[in-house]
Lcl C-terminal domain-containing protein (Moritella yayanosii), 487 residues
Amino acid sequence: MHLKKLSFLAVLLLSLGLTGCGSDNLDTVSSDNSDGSGDTSDNMSDNSDDTIYTASGNFTPKIIQRGQTFTFNYYLDKTPDAAVIYDIDIVGTAIQGTSEDYTISNASTLTFAKGSTTTNLTITTYQKEDVYDARTLSLTFTGNTGEPATINLLISGNVYLNDTGITHYSDGSSFDIQTQTNDKYKQQDAAYGLDIIINSAATEPDTGDSKDDTKQLYKNAFDVNPSDSEYKGKAGFRFVKMHDNGMALSASSTNHSCVKDEVTGLIWQVKSTYNTLSNVELDPTLPANYQMADARRYQASNFSYPWKASALSGVGPGWQNGRVNNGAFIPEDNLLANRNCGYNSGFTGRDFDLYCSSGSYANETNFLKICGQSNWVVPTVEQLRSIINYEKVTDYADLVANKHGLDETFFDCPPGDCVIANNSLQDPLYWTSSSVKGAEGLAWCINLENGAVQTCNKREYHKVLVVSSNVPAEFFNPNSDNSTVTD
């Protein structure tokens, strides 16, 4: 796999499920929609003859790639007899300037000339190699009357994708050949990508990419040593453990709640060890009364959930919640647990209903602000696949020892397995937020035991691993779901 630096928009489109897996053409320019979707017409202004004008435009959040130009068009409902002026207020993390993030044609006012019902402003963005995060830009237009109208923009950063983790070659029967033989395996994945370019422990190929210690993500001797406190993970992966307060921890720490992927910038909540759910109601004539052995560990690796959209991600009807004894389960009002999952009953003040569902789990992590984050979502197919080390799953005979394709140093916790619980229901399937196009009752899920992507019925119970990124919440809500996966 070649090293690719993708625009933030390309990665976001993947995260929203709008492009198929394996696509090589991921560059897409965001521009103002011409169909009027997202139109807002609350902003009004008057002029000297006391005529009231209503202005409208497409205020759907937009993403602008660096090096591109975005034009915002504004329209009046009637032809003005004199100039109509709207004030512009600009806020956000983006910095204005030709050597910074962007320049704007109209920085303080937007004017409709006499006799014209249209006007616009243009934003030009600039390439910056040292910017790895997306930056926000919000423009608010205010007239003399009516409510202000705001458009939220996101200027892309420079985002990398993880490689597959494969550093060995294969002849079709063996999967652990460590060196080339007369360029016999020169087209294989082990000769290309992050694993070679940034990993000083990877085997130098006879033909393919070469190691480059000038790369920003190059791994030194400490980063590749599993016994060192600065260890980052295998192959080209760069993981860092995080405490629940958001602070970074050493690789040897055992009290981490999250893992940050330094290559993609994504943060993952880790699962906890097996947590027993028991019916403590002794009277068979009364409803079941389930309790968790550890009332705090709602993120236990053995808990499972049917699919349902969360507040921030997962477009579509999803799984329709039922009540107890009606084919589905909702946590009891007081104990917040049932035979499949549970929540911490020590917290109150939620403004959402708790269900045993993937979306409800994501909502709960946002309510608790795990690791200081409040934009947790169920991952897309590409997001979840990005942390799988496929070298661990290529040799199926080795699955008994490995159990899953994630880095056990960061995603497991001693003494138990925190990815695929060691119990009678060793389900390796994890939900993604991506629905299957043309099949509302199906969503894509990933088998972390072998890395396979497959479809799952939304009523099935599977596991959830949530992810957080620096994308503002308003960009997580597309109008429709066109998710699909192709091989």
Notes: The helical segments are 8-15, 194-197, 358-368, 381-385, 399-402, 408-411. The domain at 5-158 is CATH 2.60.40.2030 (Immunoglobulin-like). The radius of gyration is 26 Å.
